[in-house]
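ping. complex inputs:
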Amino acid sequence: MVRKKPTLKTVAEKTGLAVTTVSRALLDSPQIALETRKRVAEAARELGYIPDRAAQRLRTGRTKVISLILDPHNEIPDFGRSMVAGLSYALKGTGYHLTITPDFEGEPTIDPVNYITRNHLADGLIFTRTEYFDERVKLLQELGFPFVTHGRTELATPHAYWDYDNEEFAYRAARHLIDRGCQEIGIVLPPDRFTFYQHLRYGFMRAVRESGVASVIPVDIDLDSPPEVLREHFADWQLKPGTPTGIVCPGETSALAISSSLTDRRLTPGTDFHLAVKRTSSLFELHRPSYFSIYENIFESGRGLGHSILNLLEGGEVSNNQTIQAPVM
Amino acid sequence: MVRKKPTLKTVAEKTGLAVTTVSRALLDSPQIALETRKRVAEAARELGYIPDRAAQRLRTGRTKVISLILDPHNEIPDFGRSMVAGLSYALKGTGYHLTITPDFEGEPTIDPVNYITRNHLADGLIFTRTEYFDERVKLLQELGFPFVTHGRTELATPHAYWDYDNEEFAYRAARHLIDRGCQEIGIVLPPDRFTFYQHLRYGFMRAVRESGVASVIPVDIDLDSPPEVLREHFADWQLKPGTPTGIVCPGETSALAISSSLTDRRLTPGTDFHLAVKRTSSLFELHRPSYFSIYENIFESGRGLGHSILNLLEGGEVSNNQTIQAPVM
DNA sequence: AACAGAGTTTATAACGTTATAAATTTTCGT
DNA sequence: ACGAAAATTTATAACGTTATAAACTCTGTT
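pong. complex structure:
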């Protein structure tokens, strides 16, 4: 026999107060006597009262839901280190829940944003892989819908973001390769519609300019290319003889594809080539041959994104929620 | 200026019908004249009417939410191949949304289940890593709360599951090692409270018994051991000289740790040792040296889990939702 | 023309919460 | 002890939906 779920009414009956009073008391409203608030809190605790989300949502219009839009190219470390875990951690105990809305391959990225805002399925939105004039950002700004992006844009109106310093990553990665004696260095970039394409490119080119080494930026492949395509590309790749060639790769799977392609050609890491990788998991700490890598803490990004969206929902300023995360060796 | 969200009332006014009639018409109730149903559907479409989830949830008691509980040890391939992506795919277009509830390290796994069922935050639950007499399963069965597990249990009352055939995986992996001439084979198992510990062990031991090779099952490490611990263990590991030793490893990160530990000792894959790995991502297709691996399609598990929970919610039988997924080379 | 019965539509209430405004009680200065 | 103001509590209505039961409108039979 299941005892019915306690509601405000139950608590009101137990305390002899009106439903309204109980509601206010539990919201800790200063209008209610401190004594009463304590009494109500105690009664609610005893009864195991938990507010009904659906009713609250219907009445207040707030969903208490944050939605994360994930795209299929997102590389994820184990769940414990993932952005989802970080976000969950940030939302824990706040009453906010996390829903995942996938970006399906081949469907416009604006679709989930439309869907969520039109039907008001969340109070805040988080998404990744921003473009220069990201239409999702534009739409949400027009609507005044709270959001934080993982990545920046070139749009005039500022917005909240938590971004990794890809410029610095690429610079340091390139410098490392140059310091190791590479006379020619290359970089695998994401598709050029993304803002982090530019950031990576700038950082890379800064190091190139400073040092005067030769640079190669392949155009027929990118970070999202399937591993086989990357493997083929690097199988045909002409290395400058005599000095090692360096490659910056800001993606683990891609780096693995490149490494396997080059070692399959019997090229030797350290003498024929060097690789500088962005790592988000423990993969490149365990990989042999070991390559130089710089860490991006994705769990931390998730936490940052979570804190930012919560801050915005509490009325925080956009300008206080623009973070650029430093690369860690 | 934002036009207010259309509700049943808006549609009722437009069609000149009562709110109740519109509601019934949109639910396609046979009580409403076919002609009227069409007219209402058309009007709703024109207005861009979408039912309010909060109101439906409050009135019907159904949340239209499926919750996936993820634990920190879950290994995830890229998002496109993940269980979450598979689940999303299965739920797409059904009106069900997916929420993620994490199992935090060090907190009882029953906590999120309690939280979700007590507050009725979902209509169905999906979770992984089942134990023999899993208390989550017991609780949900007592409550009559719909759920599907990724993994089986030893409990008397049958329940819905979608499981990978770990017995067969371990058998085939072990057979492969034996066929390659290993005279001694070992296996890295998950913590022994999980049911798939047994499945893996049985499959492994079946191959051992059939062939009469020596077997080793380390007890001071398991699949959840941190990579450094695994590396240390395999750094001290005494190999039988003369013939290669085989190791079955049902986890990618663990396999990587083992591989690096052994190659750091200058042991040679193929002569000193063989590794047979379970792969869920493209990691071990790209890894060098390349090892034998057997595929577990996690996206497919997600889809299967999704279809099963939907089927249960439509009144489907538990017995029709017990699937064991075959390993693929 | 009356009426049963099917076919169709509608009014009312309720799910659990909170905003608004009104009502009650207490406090305090005179 | 009185009244005004402050402090506290309460009644009412509403968010958008659907279940229940009642009301209306046809049809075809007598």
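Chain A has three domains: 8-51, 65-159+299-325, 166-295.
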